[in-house]
Design a protein that fits this description.
280 residues; elongated; 0% strand; mainly alpha
C-alpha cells in the first residue's frame, strides 16, 4: 500500500503540474475558450489508461507456474527500468518542463491539437502509473492494498494540485522529487531483486552459492506482520533472500543512486523551485 501511495502521489502530482501549466498558460494568453479541449484530452487519457490497466491485470491474473514467473519477472523488471528512466529524466528536465509545454500550447492552434497535447502529457504519466502499480503488486503488495494506496495517492495529489493552481499552497518541487526519487530508487531495486528471483525460478536454478539465503529471519516483526509487509511492499524486503537477489538489489541501487544524487550542472537560468505554475 505504501509503494502504491507514493507512486500515485508522485505521478498524480506530475499530472497536476502538467494540467496547471496548460490551463494557466491558456488563461494567461486569453484562450479560455480552449480549456475544454485540455480537460477532454486529459479525461480521455485517464479512461484509456484505466482500460489498459484493467486489461493487463485481467490477462495476468490467475497465472500459475512458469507463466506466472515469466510474467511477474518481466513486469517487475520493466517497471524498474521505466521507473529509473523517469526518475533520471525528471532530474535533468524538471526545470525546462514548463517552457516545453508552453511552446507546445503555442504550436497547437486548434482545439483538437490542444487536446492531443493534454492527452499525451497525461497518458504518459498514466501509463507509467499503471506499469508501476502492476510492478508493486508483483513486488508483494496485495491487489486490495495497491488499489487502496493508489486511490489515496491520487486523491492527495489531486487536492494538492488544485491548491497549487489556486495559489493556496506552495511546494518545493525540487525537494519533493528528490526525496521521493530516493525512495522510489530503493523501490525499483526491490523490483530488480524480485525479477531476478522470478527468472531464477523460471530457469530452474535451485542450488549453488548464489542461491543460498543471505540471511534467514524466522520470527519477529521482520518475519511477518505490518512492519514486514511495509518493508516488503516498499523496499522489496525478504526474510530469506537468495544471495543473487541481494547482489542484484545493490548492483542496481548503488550506481543509480549515485547518478541521481550527484551534483547537477549549474543552471543557465535561475531555478524555479516552487509553484503555482500558472503565475509563470
Amino acid at each position: 500500500m505504501s509503494a502504491a501511495f507514493l507512486i500515485t502521489l508522485r505521478e498524480g502530482l506530475e499530472i497536476a503540474i502538467v494540467l496547471a501549466i496548460l490551463v494557466g498558460y491558456l488563461v494567461k494568453t486569453n484562450r479560455r475558450d480552449q480549456l475544454r479541449a485540455v480537460w477532454l484530452g486529459a479525461g480521455v487519457a485517464v479512461v484509456v489508461c484505466l482500460i489498459a490497466g484493467l486489461i493487463v491485470n485481467a490477462l495476468t491474473d490467475g497465472l500459475t507456474g512458469k507463466a506466472e514467473q515469466a510474467v511477474e519477472g518481466t513486469l517487475a523488471l520493466s517497471a524498474a527500468l521505466v521507473l529509473t528512466y523517469m526518475i533520471l529524466w525528471m532530474r535533468r528536465n524538471a526545470r525546462s518542463m514548463g517552457g516545453h509545454l508552453r511552446s507546445q500550447v503555442d504550436g497547437a492552434q486548434t482545439a483538437g491539437a490542444l487536446a492531443v497535447v493534454a492527452f499525451v502529457g497525461v497518458a504518459r504519466e498514466g501509463f507509467e502509473t499503471v506499469l508501476f502499480l502492476l510492478g508493486a503488486e508483483t513486488g508483494g503488495s496485495s491487489g486490495a492494498q495497491v488499489v487502496l494506496g493508489g486511490l489515496l495517492g491520487l486523491t492527495v495529489s489531486a487536492v494538492v494540485g488544485v491548491l497549487i493552481y489556486l495559489g493556496g499552497a506552495r511546494i518545493n518541487l525540487q525537494k519533493f522529487f528528490r526525496y521521493t526519487g530516493i525512495v522510489l530508487i530503493l523501490f525499483a531495486a526491490g523490483l530488480v531483486g524480485k525479477a531476478v528471483h522470478e527468472f531464477r525460478e523460471l530457469l530452474g536454478f535451485e542450488n549453488g552459492w548464489l542461491i543460498d539465503p543471505m540471511w534467514t529471519v524466522t520470527s519477529g516483526v521482520f518475519a511477518s506482520g505490518a512492519v514486514h509487509d511495509f518493508l516488503k511492499g516498499l523496499f522489496g524486503w525478504s526474510p530469506s533472500p537468495e544471495r543473487i537477489r541481494f547482489i542484484a538489489y545493490f548492483a542496481y541501487a548503488i550506481p543509480v543512486m549515485w547518478l541521481f544524487l550527484r551534483p547537477a550542472p549549474a543552471p543557465t537560468t535561475p531555478p524555479v523551485d516552487t509553484v503555482p505554475l500558472n503565475d509563470t
